[in-house]
C-alpha cells in the first residue's frame, strides 16, 4: 500500500452536547469543523480522545462520524478515531467509518484487562483486515492503559499492509527516535503530545495531532510553517509562546478545557459528559488569560 | 448506616459465553454459581473484573445480573460489580442491580480521561445516592486506570452514608495499614490481590475477593479458616501451596486463566471475549500441572 | 557452610558524633550498645544505613567497627555492615571486620554507575572470597541505587558458599514470597523495612533488622515474641500501635530521627553528619508525642 | 554575578588508570585532554561521572584535578566536577578546584540517605559560599539518587549569587521547557543526556556536556555547528547518524564504554575501577562497528 498523503496539523474537534438534554449537538459540531477547515488545518480527526468517543453510545458514535464527514466534505482528509473495548465493536466502527467516507482510521486499543502482544496484534489484524482504508496505529498509554513499544508498533506496520502510520502520544521523544531508526526514517509518525510539539518535529514527525486548533488555529499553523521551513530559532520562540496554553489543555483534560475555551470564544459546545465535569470557574479565568496572551 | 454483614471469601464467577454464537451462557453461569455456593464461599460477586463486565453490552450485563441473583437465590450475599465509563451508565446499572435483589454493589470508576478527585467524588455520589444498598468502593488501578489513595477512599466512606466498605486491589499492603489507621480499624476492607492474601489477612482484612474458588474452592476456604483461627504457621504453609496457582491466574488474566481451568475441570464456559484470547496451549498444560499439585 | 544461627530482632545503632568537633563519640556508642544488649535484642548491627557508614572516613569506620565489637563483647552476635563504592574498599572493610571479631558481615553494593548483574556478582565474589565469615546479601534499592531481584539474590547464595542469608529492604512482600518459593523456604531472609514488619513475619522472615530498638526496644521485642508464638490477632494489635513511630522513623531518615529520639530520652549522640541536618523542631515534638503514646 | 561565558560542547574526559597497579595515569590523562582541546571542544570537564570521580580517593581526586587543569592550560574553560557524600568533603574539593585554577565547578549532590529540599539547599549553600567561582547545579537522578525539580534548581540559582547555570541529565525535555519558562529563557542550561542532544538544542540548551568527544569529536562538533546555525533538517540527519553510538555509550556506562573505545583507537587508558568491569568482548566488537560507521 502506498504511504499516506496526510501530514501537518491534524485537528481534533470536541464532540458538542446540547445543554438541554445532553444529546450530541450536530449543529455545533458542524460549526466547529467549518471553523477548523477554514483556519487551514491539514486534516480533521473526529472521535479521538478529545471527542469523548469513550463516552458515546454506538448510535451517537455513528451520528458523530457521519456528521463530521459531511461537514468536512472532503475539503481536507478526515481521520476517524476507532476505539472500543471489544474487537467486534472496533471492527464494526471501522467498517462504518469506511462506508461513511473516512480517509484514514486511527485505531487505539483500549482494554480493561491488560492485553498480551499476541492479543494486541490479533485486535489490529481484525480491524485492518475488515477495511481497505489506511490505518494509523495509536499509542496512548495514559488514556488507554496499553503501552505499545516502538518495536510492537513497527511489527503492526509490517504485518498488515494497510497499517501505514503511527501516532505516538506517550510524550517520550526517544520512542520517536526508535521509530525513525528501525525504519530508516521511512515510517511516518505523528506526535500526539502537545508539549512535545517542537521536539517531535525536530525528531522528524510528519504531523501533529492536536485539539489546540479548536482554540488558536492561526498560532498553531504559523508555528508549523516555521518549523517546516527549518527556522529553529524562530520556531522555538513561537513554541515557548504556545507552551503555557498547550500545557493547560493537557493538565485539565482536552474535552474539559477545549469546551471551556470554545465557550469563551462564543461557540457553545455544552459540557463534557459525566464523570467529566465542566472546568472550574477559577480555571476558566486562567484559560481566558492564557488565550488573551497569545 | 449499619456496617455490612459480608466477609470471608467472596467468589467471583466468570461470565460464560456459548461457543456457538458468543452469547452469554446463562446455563453454565448457573452451574458455576451453584458449584461456588455449594463449596461454602461466603458471598458471590458477579460482573466483576473476572466476569468480563467491561466487554458486555448493556443488555448482556442485565442478563448476567439477573441470572446470577436467581442462581444465588439468597443462599449467600450477592455483591454486584458496577463499572461504566459514564456516570449515567453506572447509575443505571446500580439501580438495576438493586431492583434485581443485590445485597451490595461494588463500584469501580473506569475512565478514559484521568478523573480529578472532584470528579471521582461526584461519580460515587451519583451512584450512591441513586440506591439504598451498601456500596463497596473498589480501587483497582491496574484495570481501571484510576488510583484512589486510602485518604480518598475514606473520604468517600465519610461523605456518603451507604458507602461502607472498601476493596483494595492495588496489592500494596501499606494502603491497608493506612485504611486501618485512619479509621481506628473500624472500616471493613477487602483484599482483591490474590498474591497478597496472607498478608492482607495479617493486616486485618475482613475478606478476600477472588476468582480462585471457581477452580479450587476447598483449598481457599481451608486457608481462610486457618488464618481466621489465628494459626499463623499453618496459614503460611497453606498460603505458599496456594501461591503458584494464584500467581498464575493473575499473570495470565483472570477470565482467560479461570475459563481454561474450568474447561480442564469439565465445565465448559466458552472463551473470553476478544480482544482477549483463550489461554495458549502450553500454558493450559502449566495450569493443569499447578492444579494437580494442590 | 552451615546455616546462620542469627535471627529475631537485629538492632542497628546509630553512630554518635561529638557536638564539639564532629568526631565519632565512642563513649556514647558504647552506652547505646549496652542499652540495646541489655534490652534483649538478638543481635547488633553497627555500620548499617542507620549508622551513617556512608559518611564516615576509613579511619572512622574502623574505629566504629572496633568499638562496637568491644562493646557487644560477644553477648549477642554482631553483624557488621560493609558498603563501599569500590570493590577494593569493600574487601578491605570486610577483612577488617573479620579480624576485629564480627560474626556476620552484611554486604550492600552501592554504586555511582549502575552495575550489571555480572558486576554485582563479581563484587560479592570478591568480598565473600576474602573472608571466612557468613555473608548476608543486602538489597536496599532506595539507599544504594541498586535493585537486586530475588533471583539474583539467590544466585549469589548459590555461587558463594559463605553467602547464606538475605536482608530484603525493598518493602515488597512479593519478593519475600519469591525467596521462599525458589528455595522451598530454606533460605533465611531478614526484613529491613520497618512498616512491613508484621507481613514479613507472616511471610516467614527469620528476623527483623531495625534501628527502632534504639528508641523503644521493649515494644519491638514484645511484638516479636507475640508474632513468633503465632498469635496473629494480638500481633496485629501490637503492630498497629508500633506503626506510627516506625513510619515516622522511615519518613524522616533513620539517623536523623533516631538521633533526635535518643536526645529526647537523655542520651546525647550528637547530630547526623551533613548534608543530613538535625530533625526540625516541629518534628521533634511529633516524635516526642509518638514515643509517649507507646 | 555575570552570566557564564561557557557553552557549546563541554567534553568529559575519563580518568585513565595504569594497568600495572591501578593508579591514576596522568600521562594518559594529559594525552586525552590534549586530543580533546585540539579537536576544538569548547570546554573540558574533568571529574564528572565519566571521570569515575566517585571511585577515587581524596588524594587521587586532587591529583586528577591538578593534572587536568595543567593539561588544559586555559586553552578552553575547565569545569571541575564536585561530588562527595558529605558536605564537608564537597566544600574541601570545591576549594581545592578553585585554588588549582578551575573556571567553573559543577556540583552534584550524592547521598546515601534521601535528602530533603532543605538539606539540598544547605549543601549547595555551603559549597557556593566557600568559593568565588561560578557554580553549575547538576541534576542527575540516575547516578546520584537525588532528583531536583526545575523549581528547586531555580531556587538554588536565586538563593546563591554564584550559582549561575544548570546541567540537566534527567533526559526529560519538559524540564528544560520549565527552566526556560520560569526564567524567561535567561538561565543557561546544559544538556547532559546524550540521546537528547538534538531536542535539547531545539529547546534552547546553551551547551552539551558529553564524554562522546573522547571518541568522535569531529562529528559531535559538526552536529553542534549545524544545530547552532539553525539548519534543522541537516542537524536531524547528523543526529540520527550519531544516535547509535551515543546510545551505546549510555547503555554500557560512560567510563566502561569510552575506555573500551579509546583502546580501540590506540590510546590505552586502562580499565574502569571495580566494581565496574571492562566492556565485554562481544560489546567491544559492537562498539568498533558503530565507530566505523560514523
From TrEMBL, chains A, B, C, D:
The keyword Lyase belongs to this UniProt entry's keyword annotation: yes
Active site: 138 (proton donor/acceptor), 167 (schiff-base intermediate with substrate)
A cellular component annotation (GO) from this entry: cytosol
The keyword Lyase is annotated on this UniProt entry: yes
InterPro entries, per the entry: Aldolase_TIM (IPR013785), DapA-like (IPR002220)
EC identifiers of the protein: 4.3.3.7
GO molecular function, one term: 4-hydroxy-tetrahydrodipicolinate synthase activity
Keywords for this protein: Lyase
CDD domains to which the protein is assigned, alphabetical: DHDPS-like
SMART domains (UniProt xref): DHDPS (SM01130)
Pfam families referenced in this protein's UniProt entry, alphabetically: DHDPS
Domain of life (superkingdom): Bacteria
Annotated PANTHER family: 4-HYDROXY-2-OXOGLUTARATE ALDOLASE, MITOCHONDRIAL, DIHYDRODIPICOLINATE SYNTHASE
Family to which the UniProt record says this protein belongs: Belongs to the DapA family.
Name of the protein in its database record: 4-hydroxy-tetrahydrodipicolinate synthase
Species of provenance: Streptomyces spectabilis
Lineage: Bacteria, Bacillati, Actinomycetota, Actinomycetes, Kitasatosporales
